[in-house]
Amino acid sequence: MEELNRCQWVSAGWAGGKFPEYQQYHDQEWGVPVHDDRVHFEFLVLESAQAGLSWATVLRKRAAYREAFARFDPQQVAAFGEEKVQELLQNGGIIRNGAKIRAAISNAQRFLDIQQEWGSFSAYIWEFVGGRPLINHWTENSQVPATSPQSDALAADMKKRGFKFLGSTVLYAHLQACGLVMDHTTSCYRYAELSTAKAH
């Protein structure tokens, strides 16, 4: 079977002893336009947990997070109280950081506020890219930025709304993951498939 060309960060991660799900995440999810609020919330929880850690570390714990955080239902997570926080701090399957756990609960409440105001979180976040994916044409992984004017604006607005652990770098990763920005490099087989992606 012919080996597919992928973004450099995947092969670098694979050589670093990562796991099959790492490649599957690149192949099946990364850069695919997301309009499902629960998926957006899932990535926000995982990305805020990642701060200071590698994405691979968080990806390994994804199933445990799904179980611990009510399958990423923002309404349920927003209702978590201190007893639940203490329970989560004992859960070895997730990152046991009290500030991050409390931030996820607080962020769920802010997420619901946006849904109330905009009708959906998806409608809100897609406004920051003009309603359709921004398609980049990087030839090297080193060209891909860590932030953008869009992630700066999003981070500033979300901070004003009370979100935590979601700065511009983390939110640029969210824009990439959820397909608002398409950052597969031109040599990657997914570039051709996703460079024509349209928001719907």
Automatic annotation (TrEMBL):
Assigned keywords, A-Z: Glycosidase, Hydrolase, Metal-binding, Zinc
InterPro entries in the cross-refs: Adenine_glyco, DNA-3mA_glycosylase, DNA_glycosylase
Enzyme Commission code(s) on record: 3.2.2.20
Keyword Transcription included in the entry's annotation: no
Binding residues annotated for Zn(2+), in chain numbering: 7, 26, 184, 188
UniProt GO BP: base-excision repair
Gene3D superfamilies: Hypothetical protein, domain 2 (1.10.340.30)
Entry GO MF terms: DNA-3-methyladenine glycosylase activity; metal ion binding
Enzyme class: hydrolase
Source organism, top-level taxon: Bacteria
Name of the featured protein: DNA-3-methyladenine glycosylase 1
Source organism of this protein record: Cesiribacter andamanensis AMV16
Lineage: Bacteria, Pseudomonadati, Bacteroidota, Cytophagia, Cytophagales
